[in-house]
């Protein structure tokens, strides 16, 4: 029995189904409020420069696509053979055509190359407008942020003031990572014993998710962070609040019998202090992230879990179950101990809490 080739009509029957499938795939990339980890909604000068190059290249590519495909489809119909046609004339090489279709793409590439190279130079320049320097260090698997101007260190959430350029000096404590906040700036790899630079200035307060973009081990995908862009006054409140966390002049030691005091004791007894500092001023880099301000961070476990009491307990009771391979060991905490430790960690908060934190917690 001879195999039948599918008729055009039969193929056409599948077109609506294919269109629906394609639309579903495309729409899966959207969310009602617009998932913010996208390069297509730039919110800082650096990201806008990149966006301009992307849009220009995409426009040119669209024009080329329609011209080439249009010519192809036109030629297909115009010169299609009919039964009984003689073999068409065979030609090999046409100097004029060869020159034309070499020169046109070359000219198009020039139009793409000029703005691209200009942007590369522009984004590689060091900012000179009194930037806020932040030292960024990648660790397996979390990000550390130091503010030399204020002698402060934090992790996970990088707070920046709107309207002021931030000048990131970036390196790694171990392997190669890549720092990426799609809405604010391009990617920059971080290397051992080398400082890479990246700058941006945003005028829009908000939370911007970021992600390690270079494979760096088993938990690479869960090496996220947030940029918290705040109005200057809010930012100043945050940094003075952070400086006060755990300081002797802080609102005072917890009441001796309180849950917080129990948690503080456990923090020392269980060995947490061996890897984590709870003050942010002048603190050295430890094995684990600095925990000053953890009570009011947006996320825990490097942007993996929303910072709720439940998630904090889950995390400290069995870190390996949340992120296999992290350095934090299972301390064998019971429920009571975990509750006390969570209360203590929650007390290490920056007051007043940034409004953005409340929004995130509610949104999750
Ligand atoms: Cu760090 Cu991937």
Please describe the topology of this protein.
Layout lengths: L7 H6 L1 H13 L17 H34 L16 H30 L7 E8 L2 E6 L4 E4 L1 E5 L4 E7 L4 E4 L7 E3 L5 E5 L5 E7 L11 E7 L1 H13 L14 H11 L29 E2 L4 E2 L2 H9 L1 H4 L12 H13 L7 H9 L1
Parallel strand pairs: 1-5, 4-10
Antiparallel strand pairs: 1-2, 2-3, 5-8, 6-7, 6-9, 9-10, 11-12
Helix pairs in contact: 3-4, 6-9, 7-9
The structure holds dinuclear copper ion.
Word description of this protein:
There is one protein chain. The protein is 39% helix and 16% strand. It is an alpha+beta fold. The strands form three sheets. A five-stranded mixed sheet has the order 3-2-1-5-8. The protein has a five-stranded mixed sheet with strand order 4-10-9-6-7. The chain has a two-stranded antiparallel ribbon with strand order 11-12. It is elongated, with a radius of gyration of 28 Å. The relative contact order is 0.10. Dinuclear copper ion is lined by residues 138, 141, 177, 212, 214-216, 220, 223.
Task: Sum up the structure in keywords.
364 residues, alpha+beta, Immunoglobulin-like, 5-stranded mixed β-sheet, 10 helices, 39% helix, elongated, disordered C terminus, binds dinuclear copper ion
């Amino acid at each position: 029995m001879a195999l039948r080739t599918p008729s055009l009509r039969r193929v056409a029957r599948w077109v609506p189904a294919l269109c629906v499938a394609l639309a579903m795939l495309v729409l899966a990339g959207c969310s009602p409020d617009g998932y913010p980890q996208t390069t297509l909604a730039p919110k800082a000068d650096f990201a806008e420069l990149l966006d301009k190059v992307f849009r220009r290249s995409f426009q040119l590519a669209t024009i080329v696509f329609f011209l080439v495909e249009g010519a192809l489809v036109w030629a297909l119909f115009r010169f299609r053979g009919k039964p009984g046609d003689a073999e068409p004339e065979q030609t090999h090489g046409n100097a004029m055509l060869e020159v034309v279709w070499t020169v046109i793409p070359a000219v198009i590439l020039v139009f793409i190359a000029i703005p691209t190279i200009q942007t590369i130079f522009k984004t590689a320049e060091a900012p000179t407008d009194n930037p806020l320097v932040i030292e960024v260090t990648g660790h397996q698997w979390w990000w550390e942020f130091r503010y030399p101007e204020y002698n402060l260190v934090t992790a996970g959430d990088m707070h920046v003031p709107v309207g002021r350029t931030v000048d990131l000096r970036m390196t790694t404590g171990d392997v190669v990572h890549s720092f990426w906040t799609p809405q604010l700036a391009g990617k920059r790899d971080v290397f051992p014993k080398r400082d890479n630079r990246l700058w941006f200035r945003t005028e829009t307060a908000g939370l911007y998710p970021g992600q390690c973009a270079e494979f760096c081990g088993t938990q690479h995908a869960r090496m996220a962070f947030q940029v918290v862009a705040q109005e200057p006054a809010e930012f100043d409140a945050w940094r003075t609040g952070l400086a006060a966390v755990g300081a002797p002049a802080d609102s005072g030691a917890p009441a001796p019998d309180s849950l917080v005091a129990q948690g503080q004791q456990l923090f020392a007894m269980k060995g947490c202090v061996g890897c984590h500092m709870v003050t942010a001023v002048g603190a050295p880099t430890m094995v684990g992230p600095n925990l000053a301000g953890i009570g009011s961070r947006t996320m825990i476990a490097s942007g993996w879990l929303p910072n709720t009491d439940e998630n904090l307990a889950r995390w400290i009771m069995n870190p390996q179950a949340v992120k296999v391979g992290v350095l934090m060991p299972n301390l064998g905490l019971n429920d009571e101990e975990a509750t006390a430790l969570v209360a203590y960690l929650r007390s290490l908060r920056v007051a007043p809490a940034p409004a953005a934190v409340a929004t995130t917690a509610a949104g999750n």
